């Protein structure tokens, strides 16, 4: 994985960073920790500028998240009810739960989106409900960009400071991300087995 990221970054430069960050958020095959960390290493080697690295990474993150926001926005809140009525059992949701989520996003959507930008397994997932519950485009883009920028600054400077040792993070990031996904699946299966509709 590390070698693939290195080749694409070295071949594409800032465009490679942008493309990888879009892909990481649309189809998350590569962790952003690795992409921006390697970008930070390249800054330390004098092969990239930190400002352009952060710009490319943050725009790529925002574009990738906006894709899932638009999917949710096009599907729309109004089309959810038949789906929830029919398949709510598999999502362990009732329509009252969906209405509660709608109110949550109406009041605190920007905070939810901003905070989730720092969570390894859920950074991209939060974009879909943000679109479904009609969070405003500009609010979504503003808070997504802000959260993504802060996260990318942390990762890029970590790569810059740690240098080549940062490549070792691939040994740890992969298992941690896998553990988060497995944990989410276990929680879902437990909820599915124990869930009973209130009605």
TrEMBL record:
<keyword id="KW-0472">Membrane</keyword>
<dbReference type="Pfam" id="PF09335">
    <property type="entry name" value="VTT_dom"/>
</dbReference>
<keyword id="KW-0812">Transmembrane</keyword>
<feature type="transmembrane region" description="Helical">
    <location>
        <begin position="172"/>
        <end position="190"/>
    </location>
</feature>
<feature type="transmembrane region" description="Helical">
    <location>
        <begin position="52"/>
        <end position="71"/>
    </location>
</feature>
<keyword id="KW-1003">Cell membrane</keyword>
<feature type="transmembrane region" description="Helical">
    <location>
        <begin position="12"/>
        <end position="31"/>
    </location>
</feature>
<feature type="transmembrane region" description="Helical">
    <location>
        <begin position="140"/>
        <end position="160"/>
    </location>
</feature>
<feature type="domain" description="VTT">
    <location>
        <begin position="30"/>
        <end position="159"/>
    </location>
</feature>
<dbReference type="GO" id="GO:0005886">
    <property type="term" value="C:plasma membrane"/>
</dbReference>
<keyword id="KW-1133">Transmembrane helix</keyword>
<feature type="transmembrane region" description="Helical">
    <location>
        <begin position="111"/>
        <end position="133"/>
    </location>
</feature>
<dbReference type="InterPro" id="IPR032816">
    <property type="entry name" value="VTT_dom"/>
</dbReference>
<dbReference type="InterPro" id="IPR051311">
    <property type="entry name" value="DedA_domain"/>
</dbReference>
<protein>
    <submittedName>
        <fullName>Alkaline phosphatase</fullName>
    </submittedName>
</protein>
């Amino acid at each position: 994985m590390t070698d693939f990221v290195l080749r694409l970054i070295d071949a594409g430069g800032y465009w490679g960073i942008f493309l990888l960050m879009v892909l990481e958020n649309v189809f998350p095959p590569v962790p952003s920790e690795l992409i921006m960390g390697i970008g930070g290493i390249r800054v330390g080697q004098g092969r990239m500028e930190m400002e352009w690295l952060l710009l490319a990474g943050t725009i790529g993150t925002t574009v990738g998240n906006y894709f899932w926001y638009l999917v949710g926005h096009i599907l729309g809140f109004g089309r959810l009810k038949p789906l929830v009525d029919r398949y709510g059992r598999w999502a362990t949701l009732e329509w009252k739960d969906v209405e509660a989520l709608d109110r949550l996003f109406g009041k605190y959507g920007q905070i939810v989106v901003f905070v989730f930008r720092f969570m390894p397994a859920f950074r991209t997932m939060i974009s879909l409900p943000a679109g479904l519950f009609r969070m405003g485009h500009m609010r979504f883009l503003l808070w997504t960009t802000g959260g993504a920028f802060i996260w990318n600054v942390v990762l890029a400077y970590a790569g810059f400071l740690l240098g080549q040792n940062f490549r070792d993070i691939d040994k740890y990031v992969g298992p941690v991300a896998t553990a988060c996904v497995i944990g989410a699946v276990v929680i879902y299966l437990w909820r599915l087995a124990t869930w009973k509709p209130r009605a």
